[in-house]
Amino acid sequence: xxxxxxxxxxxxxxxxxxxxxxxxxxxxxxxxxxxxxxxxxxxxxxxxxxxxxxxxxxxxxxxxxxxxxxxxxxxxxxxxxxxxxxxxxxxxxxxxxxxxxxxxxxxxxxxxxxxxxxxxxxxxxxxxxxxxxxxxxxxxxxxxxxxxxxxxxxxxxxxxxxxxxxxxxxxxxxxxxxxxxxxxxxxxxxxxxxxxxxxxxxxxxxxxxxxxxxxxxxxxxxxxxxxxxxxxxxxxxxxxxxxxxxxxxxxxxxxxxxxxxxxxxxxxxxxxxxxxxxxxxxxxxxxxxxxxxxxxxxxxxxxxxxxxxxxxxxxxxxxxxxxxxxxxxxxxxxxxxxxxxxxxxxxxxxxxxxxxxxxxxxxxxxxxxxxxxxxxxxxxxxxxxx
Length: 386
Prior knowledge:
Blueprint: H1 7-12, H2 25-41, E1 62-67, E2 77-79, E3 86-90, E4 101-106, E5 109-114, E6 128-133, E7 139-143, E8 154-162, E9 165-176, E10 179-185, E11 188-193, E12 204-211, H3 212-216, E13 220-221, E14 231-236, E15 248-253, E16 259-263, E17 269-274, E18 280-285, E19 289-290, E20 299-302, E21 307-312, E22 317-322, E23 327-333, E24 347-353, E25 356-361, E26 378-384
Parallel strand pairs: 9-13, 19-23
Antiparallel strand pairs: 1-26, 2-3, 3-4, 4-5, 6-7, 7-8, 8-9, 10-11, 11-12, 12-14, 15-16, 16-17, 17-18, 20-21, 21-22, 22-23, 24-25, 25-26
Protein name: SMP-30/gluconolactonase/LRE family protein
Keywords: Hydrolase, Signal
Domain SMP-30/Gluconolactonase/LRE-like region: 102-313
Protein backbone atom coordinates (compact mmCIF):
# COMPACT_ATOMS: atom_id res chain seq x y z
CA UNK A 1 0.00 0.00 0.00
CA UNK A 2 1.25 3.50 -0.58
CA UNK A 3 2.76 5.57 2.22
CA UNK A 4 0.72 8.41 3.67
CA UNK A 5 -2.63 8.45 1.90
CA UNK A 6 -3.85 5.09 3.16
CA UNK A 7 -2.10 4.81 6.50
CA UNK A 8 -5.42 4.56 8.32
CA UNK A 9 -6.48 1.72 6.07
CA UNK A 10 -3.18 -0.04 6.62
CA UNK A 11 -3.64 0.07 10.35
CA UNK A 12 -7.21 -1.15 10.07
CA UNK A 13 -6.12 -4.14 8.02
CA UNK A 14 -8.01 -3.04 4.91
CA UNK A 15 -5.02 -2.63 2.64
CA UNK A 16 -5.21 -5.87 0.75
CA UNK A 17 -6.44 -6.40 -2.78
CA UNK A 18 -8.83 -9.04 -4.02
CA UNK A 19 -6.41 -11.59 -2.65
CA UNK A 20 -4.89 -10.67 0.67
CA UNK A 21 -1.17 -10.62 1.44
CA UNK A 22 0.47 -12.64 4.18
CA UNK A 23 2.95 -9.83 4.94
CA UNK A 24 3.59 -9.36 8.66
CA UNK A 25 3.28 -6.05 10.54
CA UNK A 26 7.07 -5.71 10.78
CA UNK A 27 7.45 -6.35 7.07
CA UNK A 28 4.75 -3.78 6.31
CA UNK A 29 6.40 -1.16 8.50
CA UNK A 30 9.80 -1.72 6.97
CA UNK A 31 8.63 -1.68 3.37
CA UNK A 32 6.38 1.33 3.92
CA UNK A 33 9.30 3.23 5.40
CA UNK A 34 11.44 2.26 2.43
CA UNK A 35 8.73 3.38 0.04
CA UNK A 36 8.40 6.69 1.93
CA UNK A 37 12.12 7.32 1.54
CA UNK A 38 11.96 6.53 -2.15
CA UNK A 39 9.00 8.84 -2.58
CA UNK A 40 10.82 11.67 -0.85
CA UNK A 41 13.73 11.29 -3.24
CA UNK A 42 11.47 10.92 -6.29
CA UNK A 43 7.94 12.33 -5.83
CA UNK A 44 6.56 10.35 -8.75
CA UNK A 45 4.22 7.51 -7.83
CA UNK A 46 5.70 4.06 -7.34
CA UNK A 47 4.70 2.15 -10.45
CA UNK A 48 6.52 -1.14 -9.92
CA UNK A 49 9.85 0.57 -10.44
CA UNK A 50 8.72 1.89 -13.83
CA UNK A 51 9.21 5.68 -14.11
CA UNK A 52 5.98 7.65 -13.84
CA UNK A 53 4.52 8.44 -17.24
CA UNK A 54 5.81 5.29 -18.93
CA UNK A 55 2.80 3.07 -18.25
CA UNK A 56 1.13 2.84 -21.66
CA UNK A 57 -2.46 3.60 -22.51
CA UNK A 58 -3.92 0.74 -24.52
CA UNK A 59 -7.54 0.30 -25.64
CA UNK A 60 -10.53 2.38 -24.65
CA UNK A 61 -12.59 0.89 -21.82
CA UNK A 62 -15.96 2.56 -21.22
CA UNK A 63 -17.78 3.43 -18.01
CA UNK A 64 -20.73 1.16 -17.18
CA UNK A 65 -21.68 2.93 -13.97
CA UNK A 66 -20.29 4.59 -10.85
CA UNK A 67 -20.89 3.26 -7.34
CA UNK A 68 -21.15 5.27 -4.09
CA UNK A 69 -18.66 4.95 -1.23
CA UNK A 70 -21.02 2.39 0.35
CA UNK A 71 -19.91 0.05 -2.46
CA UNK A 72 -16.19 0.74 -2.51
CA UNK A 73 -14.62 -2.49 -3.82
CA UNK A 74 -16.62 -4.06 -6.67
CA UNK A 75 -15.34 -7.58 -7.25
CA UNK A 76 -16.95 -10.87 -8.37
CA UNK A 77 -19.26 -11.16 -11.37
CA UNK A 78 -21.76 -13.90 -12.27
CA UNK A 79 -24.15 -14.33 -15.19
CA UNK A 80 -27.71 -15.46 -14.47
CA UNK A 81 -28.86 -18.73 -16.07
CA UNK A 82 -31.14 -16.85 -18.49
CA UNK A 83 -28.25 -14.56 -19.49
CA UNK A 84 -30.21 -11.40 -18.78
CA UNK A 85 -28.61 -10.09 -15.61
CA UNK A 86 -25.30 -10.11 -13.77
CA UNK A 87 -24.50 -10.31 -10.10
CA UNK A 88 -21.76 -8.18 -8.59
CA UNK A 89 -20.20 -8.85 -5.19
CA UNK A 90 -18.98 -5.89 -3.15
CA UNK A 91 -16.94 -7.00 -0.10
CA UNK A 92 -16.07 -3.39 0.84
CA UNK A 93 -12.57 -4.34 1.96
CA UNK A 94 -11.17 -0.88 1.22
CA UNK A 95 -13.53 0.49 3.84
CA UNK A 96 -15.39 -2.26 5.66
CA UNK A 97 -17.25 0.13 7.93
CA UNK A 98 -19.89 -0.35 5.23
CA UNK A 99 -21.61 -3.76 5.13
CA UNK A 100 -20.76 -6.06 2.24
CA UNK A 101 -23.44 -6.64 -0.36
CA UNK A 102 -24.34 -8.30 -3.66
CA UNK A 103 -25.86 -6.18 -6.43
CA UNK A 104 -27.79 -7.08 -9.57
CA UNK A 105 -26.79 -5.49 -12.89
CA UNK A 106 -29.24 -5.01 -15.74
CA UNK A 107 -28.06 -3.00 -18.72
CA UNK A 108 -26.01 -0.11 -17.41
CA UNK A 109 -27.67 0.15 -14.01
CA UNK A 110 -27.73 -1.81 -10.77
CA UNK A 111 -30.01 -2.52 -7.83
CA UNK A 112 -29.73 -4.48 -4.55
CA UNK A 113 -29.83 -8.26 -4.82
CA UNK A 114 -28.74 -9.65 -1.44
CA UNK A 115 -28.02 -6.95 1.12
CA UNK A 116 -28.31 -8.71 4.47
CA UNK A 117 -25.43 -11.15 4.10
CA UNK A 118 -24.78 -13.32 7.17
CA UNK A 119 -21.62 -12.28 8.99
CA UNK A 120 -18.99 -14.75 10.16
CA UNK A 121 -19.58 -15.21 13.93
CA UNK A 122 -16.06 -14.36 15.09
CA UNK A 123 -15.28 -11.46 12.72
CA UNK A 124 -18.79 -9.99 12.57
CA UNK A 125 -18.18 -9.29 8.87
CA UNK A 126 -19.32 -10.66 5.53
CA UNK A 127 -16.94 -10.53 2.56
CA UNK A 128 -18.30 -12.00 -0.72
CA UNK A 129 -15.75 -12.43 -3.50
CA UNK A 130 -16.23 -14.56 -6.63
CA UNK A 131 -19.71 -16.01 -7.15
CA UNK A 132 -21.60 -18.25 -9.57
CA UNK A 133 -24.98 -19.84 -10.16
CA UNK A 134 -24.91 -23.58 -9.48
CA UNK A 135 -26.64 -26.32 -11.50
CA UNK A 136 -29.21 -26.45 -8.68
CA UNK A 137 -30.21 -22.84 -9.45
CA UNK A 138 -28.71 -21.48 -6.23
CA UNK A 139 -26.00 -18.83 -6.00
CA UNK A 140 -22.69 -19.76 -4.39
CA UNK A 141 -20.09 -17.24 -3.30
CA UNK A 142 -16.60 -17.50 -1.85
CA UNK A 143 -16.23 -15.46 1.30
CA UNK A 144 -12.82 -14.01 2.08
CA UNK A 145 -12.42 -13.49 5.82
CA UNK A 146 -8.61 -13.38 5.59
CA UNK A 147 -8.80 -9.59 5.80
CA UNK A 148 -10.47 -9.94 9.19
CA UNK A 149 -8.91 -13.12 10.57
CA UNK A 150 -6.07 -15.47 9.65
CA UNK A 151 -7.68 -18.33 11.61
CA UNK A 152 -9.26 -20.26 8.71
CA UNK A 153 -12.74 -18.79 9.06
CA UNK A 154 -13.38 -18.03 5.37
CA UNK A 155 -16.38 -19.83 3.89
CA UNK A 156 -18.28 -20.94 0.84
CA UNK A 157 -21.81 -19.58 1.10
CA UNK A 158 -25.02 -20.62 -0.64
CA UNK A 159 -27.94 -18.32 -1.45
CA UNK A 160 -31.03 -20.48 -1.76
CA UNK A 161 -33.03 -19.06 -4.65
CA UNK A 162 -36.83 -19.01 -4.68
CA UNK A 163 -38.73 -17.94 -7.79
CA UNK A 164 -35.64 -16.21 -9.10
CA UNK A 165 -35.03 -14.19 -5.94
CA UNK A 166 -32.64 -14.76 -3.02
CA UNK A 167 -33.98 -16.60 0.00
CA UNK A 168 -32.06 -17.94 2.98
CA UNK A 169 -28.27 -17.77 2.95
CA UNK A 170 -26.25 -20.53 4.60
CA UNK A 171 -22.71 -21.83 4.95
CA UNK A 172 -21.92 -24.71 2.59
CA UNK A 173 -18.20 -25.17 3.44
CA UNK A 174 -16.15 -23.66 6.23
CA UNK A 175 -12.50 -23.52 7.38
CA UNK A 176 -11.03 -21.98 4.24
CA UNK A 177 -8.29 -19.48 4.91
CA UNK A 178 -8.82 -17.23 1.88
CA UNK A 179 -11.66 -18.53 -0.29
CA UNK A 180 -11.46 -16.58 -3.51
CA UNK A 181 -12.35 -17.78 -7.01
CA UNK A 182 -15.08 -20.28 -7.93
CA UNK A 183 -16.35 -22.01 -11.06
CA UNK A 184 -18.91 -24.74 -11.69
CA UNK A 185 -17.99 -27.39 -14.27
CA UNK A 186 -20.94 -29.71 -14.62
CA UNK A 187 -21.95 -30.81 -11.14
CA UNK A 188 -18.54 -30.07 -9.62
CA UNK A 189 -17.61 -26.78 -7.96
CA UNK A 190 -13.97 -25.70 -7.92
CA UNK A 191 -12.83 -23.12 -5.35
CA UNK A 192 -9.43 -21.49 -4.93
CA UNK A 193 -7.90 -20.83 -1.54
CA UNK A 194 -5.15 -18.26 -2.02
CA UNK A 195 -3.58 -18.94 1.38
CA UNK A 196 -3.82 -22.72 1.87
CA UNK A 197 -0.54 -23.13 3.75
CA UNK A 198 0.98 -26.41 4.84
CA UNK A 199 3.20 -27.07 7.88
CA UNK A 200 6.26 -27.05 5.60
CA UNK A 201 5.05 -24.35 3.17
CA UNK A 202 3.79 -20.94 4.30
CA UNK A 203 3.49 -19.73 0.69
CA UNK A 204 0.89 -22.32 -0.30
CA UNK A 205 -2.42 -22.10 -2.13
CA UNK A 206 -4.83 -24.67 -3.52
CA UNK A 207 -7.75 -25.53 -5.76
CA UNK A 208 -10.53 -27.43 -3.96
CA UNK A 209 -13.34 -29.46 -5.51
CA UNK A 210 -16.84 -30.27 -4.23
CA UNK A 211 -19.62 -32.26 -5.88
CA UNK A 212 -23.18 -31.01 -5.89
CA UNK A 213 -24.35 -34.19 -4.18
CA UNK A 214 -21.86 -33.66 -1.37
CA UNK A 215 -22.88 -30.02 -0.95
CA UNK A 216 -26.52 -31.10 -0.66
CA UNK A 217 -25.77 -33.38 2.29
CA UNK A 218 -24.87 -30.60 4.71
CA UNK A 219 -22.07 -28.38 5.97
CA UNK A 220 -18.56 -29.48 4.94
CA UNK A 221 -15.63 -28.82 7.28
CA UNK A 222 -12.18 -28.52 5.71
CA UNK A 223 -9.04 -29.57 7.56
CA UNK A 224 -6.57 -26.64 7.61
CA UNK A 225 -2.86 -27.16 6.94
CA UNK A 226 -3.48 -30.59 5.43
CA UNK A 227 -3.98 -32.00 1.95
CA UNK A 228 -7.68 -32.20 2.68
CA UNK A 229 -9.53 -34.79 0.55
CA UNK A 230 -11.13 -31.86 -1.30
CA UNK A 231 -7.76 -30.52 -2.50
CA UNK A 232 -7.33 -31.03 -6.24
CA UNK A 233 -4.01 -29.21 -6.71
CA UNK A 234 -1.54 -27.20 -4.63
CA UNK A 235 0.82 -24.36 -5.54
CA UNK A 236 3.68 -22.33 -4.07
CA UNK A 237 3.98 -18.56 -4.57
CA UNK A 238 7.32 -16.91 -5.31
CA UNK A 239 7.25 -13.69 -3.29
CA UNK A 240 8.55 -10.57 -5.05
CA UNK A 241 8.92 -6.92 -4.09
CA UNK A 242 5.18 -6.58 -3.40
CA UNK A 243 5.56 -8.89 -0.42
CA UNK A 244 2.31 -10.64 -1.44
CA UNK A 245 2.31 -14.41 -1.02
CA UNK A 246 -1.26 -15.04 -2.21
CA UNK A 247 -1.37 -17.77 -4.80
CA UNK A 248 -4.24 -19.38 -6.75
CA UNK A 249 -6.93 -16.78 -7.39
CA UNK A 250 -9.19 -16.79 -10.45
CA UNK A 251 -10.31 -20.08 -11.97
CA UNK A 252 -12.02 -21.25 -15.17
CA UNK A 253 -11.87 -24.05 -17.77
CA UNK A 254 -11.37 -24.27 -21.55
CA UNK A 255 -13.32 -26.00 -24.33
CA UNK A 256 -11.51 -29.27 -23.60
CA UNK A 257 -12.39 -29.22 -19.90
CA UNK A 258 -8.90 -28.29 -18.69
CA UNK A 259 -8.87 -26.11 -15.57
CA UNK A 260 -6.72 -22.99 -15.16
CA UNK A 261 -5.80 -20.78 -12.24
CA UNK A 262 -3.44 -17.85 -11.85
CA UNK A 263 -1.20 -16.68 -9.02
CA UNK A 264 -1.94 -13.25 -7.62
CA UNK A 265 1.48 -13.01 -6.00
CA UNK A 266 3.78 -13.88 -8.93
CA UNK A 267 1.66 -13.98 -12.10
CA UNK A 268 2.15 -17.68 -12.87
CA UNK A 269 -0.62 -19.22 -15.00
CA UNK A 270 -1.36 -22.88 -14.26
CA UNK A 271 -3.11 -25.54 -16.32
CA UNK A 272 -4.70 -28.57 -14.65
CA UNK A 273 -5.54 -31.58 -16.82
CA UNK A 274 -8.18 -33.88 -15.33
CA UNK A 275 -8.75 -37.61 -15.53
CA UNK A 276 -12.17 -38.92 -16.63
CA UNK A 277 -13.16 -39.29 -12.97
CA UNK A 278 -12.34 -35.62 -12.32
CA UNK A 279 -9.16 -36.19 -10.33
CA UNK A 280 -5.91 -34.48 -11.28
CA UNK A 281 -3.88 -36.00 -14.10
CA UNK A 282 -1.30 -33.21 -14.45
CA UNK A 283 -0.62 -29.62 -13.45
CA UNK A 284 1.86 -27.32 -15.15
CA UNK A 285 2.91 -23.70 -15.21
CA UNK A 286 2.35 -22.54 -18.77
CA UNK A 287 5.35 -20.97 -20.57
CA UNK A 288 3.66 -17.72 -21.53
CA UNK A 289 5.19 -15.54 -24.22
CA UNK A 290 4.53 -12.03 -25.43
CA UNK A 291 3.48 -9.35 -22.95
CA UNK A 292 4.50 -10.10 -19.36
CA UNK A 293 1.90 -10.61 -16.64
CA UNK A 294 3.16 -10.00 -13.09
CA UNK A 295 -0.09 -10.58 -11.15
CA UNK A 296 -3.19 -12.57 -12.07
CA UNK A 297 -6.41 -11.81 -10.27
CA UNK A 298 -9.69 -12.94 -11.85
CA UNK A 299 -10.20 -14.17 -15.41
CA UNK A 300 -12.74 -15.62 -17.80
CA UNK A 301 -12.16 -18.06 -20.66
CA UNK A 302 -14.17 -17.73 -23.86
CA UNK A 303 -14.66 -21.40 -24.67
CA UNK A 304 -15.61 -20.57 -28.27
CA UNK A 305 -12.11 -19.22 -28.93
CA UNK A 306 -10.12 -20.60 -25.97
CA UNK A 307 -8.89 -17.13 -25.14
CA UNK A 308 -8.49 -16.18 -21.48
CA UNK A 309 -9.22 -12.59 -20.47
CA UNK A 310 -7.01 -11.82 -17.49
CA UNK A 311 -7.17 -9.01 -14.94
CA UNK A 312 -3.62 -7.78 -14.38
CA UNK A 313 -4.37 -6.13 -11.05
CA UNK A 314 -0.82 -4.98 -10.42
CA UNK A 315 -0.28 -3.53 -13.90
CA UNK A 316 -3.69 -1.85 -14.27
CA UNK A 317 -4.33 -3.96 -17.34
CA UNK A 318 -6.52 -6.51 -19.06
CA UNK A 319 -4.51 -9.19 -20.85
CA UNK A 320 -5.54 -11.88 -23.31
CA UNK A 321 -3.89 -15.31 -23.30
CA UNK A 322 -4.43 -17.41 -26.42
CA UNK A 323 -4.52 -20.86 -24.86
CA UNK A 324 -3.70 -22.47 -28.20
CA UNK A 325 -0.35 -20.67 -28.44
CA UNK A 326 0.27 -19.34 -24.87
CA UNK A 327 0.78 -15.90 -26.41
CA UNK A 328 -0.12 -12.86 -24.28
CA UNK A 329 -1.40 -9.56 -25.64
CA UNK A 330 -2.63 -6.43 -23.86
CA UNK A 331 -6.27 -5.55 -24.45
CA UNK A 332 -6.42 -2.49 -22.19
CA UNK A 333 -4.08 -0.64 -19.85
CA UNK A 334 -3.65 2.82 -18.45
CA UNK A 335 -1.52 4.67 -15.88
CA UNK A 336 -2.70 5.37 -12.34
CA UNK A 337 -6.13 7.02 -12.42
CA UNK A 338 -9.17 7.30 -10.15
CA UNK A 339 -11.17 5.28 -12.69
CA UNK A 340 -13.25 8.19 -13.93
CA UNK A 341 -14.74 7.66 -17.36
CA UNK A 342 -14.22 3.91 -17.18
CA UNK A 343 -10.42 3.88 -17.02
CA UNK A 344 -8.87 0.71 -15.62
CA UNK A 345 -8.45 1.13 -11.86
CA UNK A 346 -6.92 -2.08 -10.49
CA UNK A 347 -9.16 -4.64 -12.19
CA UNK A 348 -10.08 -7.69 -10.14
CA UNK A 349 -12.68 -9.62 -12.13
CA UNK A 350 -14.04 -9.86 -15.66
CA UNK A 351 -17.10 -11.50 -17.18
CA UNK A 352 -17.97 -12.08 -20.82
CA UNK A 353 -21.60 -11.63 -21.93
CA UNK A 354 -21.91 -11.85 -25.68
CA UNK A 355 -19.11 -9.70 -27.04
CA UNK A 356 -19.08 -7.39 -24.02
CA UNK A 357 -16.36 -7.83 -21.41
CA UNK A 358 -17.41 -6.47 -18.01
CA UNK A 359 -14.65 -5.28 -15.68
CA UNK A 360 -14.76 -4.77 -11.90
CA UNK A 361 -12.31 -2.09 -10.77
CA UNK A 362 -11.43 -3.24 -7.26
CA UNK A 363 -9.24 -0.19 -6.54
CA UNK A 364 -7.61 -1.34 -3.29
CA UNK A 365 -3.87 -1.69 -3.96
CA UNK A 366 -0.86 -3.07 -2.17
CA UNK A 367 2.61 -1.62 -2.60
CA UNK A 368 4.29 -1.65 -6.01
CA UNK A 369 0.99 -1.53 -7.88
CA UNK A 370 0.39 0.96 -10.71
CA UNK A 371 -2.77 1.95 -8.83
CA UNK A 372 -1.51 3.85 -5.81
CA UNK A 373 -4.58 4.43 -3.65
CA UNK A 374 -8.22 3.57 -3.13
CA UNK A 375 -10.35 6.53 -4.10
CA UNK A 376 -13.68 7.55 -5.56
CA UNK A 377 -15.22 7.06 -8.01
CA UNK A 378 -15.80 3.31 -7.63
CA UNK A 379 -16.56 1.92 -11.04
CA UNK A 380 -17.57 -0.88 -13.36
CA UNK A 381 -16.16 -0.70 -16.88
CA UNK A 382 -16.66 -2.61 -20.09
CA UNK A 383 -15.02 -3.29 -23.42
CA UNK A 384 -16.98 -4.30 -26.50
CA UNK A 385 -14.90 -6.92 -28.28
CA UNK A 386 -14.77 -7.20 -32.08
